[in-house]
Amino acid sequence: LQAATRLYRDLGSPEVFGLLRLGLVGEKTLAGFARESIRRLFEIDDHEACNVLVEHYSVVTVRIVVEGLAGCDNRWKHEYLKRLFAKDEVVGAPYHMQMVELYAEYEPQALLNFLHASERYPLQDALQVCRARGLLEEEAYLLGKAGHVNEALKVLLEQVGDVGRAVQFAAEYQDPRLWEFLICFVLERPHLLVPLLDHLEDLDSLFGEVGKDSGRTQPPQNAKPAHVLRRLPPGTPVSRIASIVGRVFKSVELSKSLTEHCNTLSRREVRARKRAIIHTHSRGTLVA
Q1: Statement: residue 198 has pLDDT above 80
Q2: How far apart are CA 107 and CA 212, in angstroms?
Q3: Predicted TM-score (pTM) of this structure
Q4: Stretch 28-53: mean pLDDT, rounded?
Q5: Which of 235, 257, 254 lies closest to 246 in space, CA to CA?
Q6: What pLDDT is attached to residue 267?
Q7: Which stretch of 113-127, 220-234, 245-259 has the lowest confidence by average pLDDT?
Q8: Among 18-22, 74-78, 251-255, which is the least confidently predicted range?
Q9: At what angle do helices 193-207 and 238-282 cross, to 10 degrees?
Q10: pLDDT category, 254, cuts 50, 70, 90?
Q11: 91 CB-near residues (< 8 Å, 6+ apart)
Q12: What is the mean pLDDT of the chain?
């Protein structure tokens, strides 16, 4: 088996991978061959090499593979570590900072998901990578994770310019001071007012419909659309926000109506219980 596998490797034939799989199970007769052939296997077929080495990472360790790929195309290492992470998030932990760098270089659109999924990279080092490559959403996420939430919100508003993402970020923390900064920022830029009110309406729906307890921590009062409308500066164009204003008013009226109805029901229930108690105490008591 080893002689045939070596022959296929030297010929550059993809058949080598089928034999390699056979030799890496059971007695693992091809373990040494695989360890010394890392680079050549990737040259033959990098995708298949990734698959085999990830499947058998307990035989051919992560360290051996990474060292074997030194000086090769970094895309190979990126693909290998990415597939390894999908299979086992812990086994490649010492290389997660390298993965941050590799994602930033070759797959920046997927870096944010990786930053969310892993806890095993130095925050400051990852932050430097994101800043160096201008990855603003990733920078904001890491700033928030490091506790610098005000800086993170500034990045989203002033550099990314995404009100929706800023609302989502503020909703994760439910800090009235963050909401105040966000709302003041938008009130100074009227063209952002409609997107803000739209996203605040969506947030209301997410955290619970009127009259229904969603079980979530509710946003502070200054994150409510009605609060923002009360703070609109004079001269705000009504036509742009008319539909939103109408929906907010209907929501407030419905909330008020439901509150009054609940209060009425509560008073009726209290009176009914009071009558039941009085009736019970007014009945005669059997004395033995």
Answers
A1: yes
A2: 42
A3: 0.77
A4: 95
A5: 254
A6: 73
A7: 245-259
A8: 251-255
A9: 20
A10: very low
A11: 57, 62, 84
A12: 86
Model pLDDT, residue 210: 44
User: Taking 60 as the threshold, does the pLDDT of residue 127 lie above it?
Assistant: yes
| Tokens representing residue 240 in the block | 């742009």
Sign of CA dihedral 132, 89, 95, 120: positive
What six digits make up the tokens of 108? 């920046």
169's CB contacts (< 8 A; 6+ apart) are: 140, 144, 149, 152, 153, 156, 178
Tokens for 281? 């105490």
Asked if the model's pLDDT at residue 84 lies above 80, the reply is yes
Give the CA radius of gyration of the chain. Answer: 31
Calculate the CA 115 to chain-centre distance.
Answer: 9
- How many other C-beta atoms can be found within 10 angstroms of the C-beta atom of residue 144? 20
Residue 44 structure tokens: 């033959």
Q: Left, alpha or beta for 212 (phi > 0: left; psi -120 to 50: alpha)?
A: beta
Three-state SS for 125-152 is HHHHHHHHCCCHHHHHHHHHHCCCHHHH
**Cβ-proximal residues to 229 (8 Å cutoff; 6+ apart), any chain:** 197, 241, 245, 248
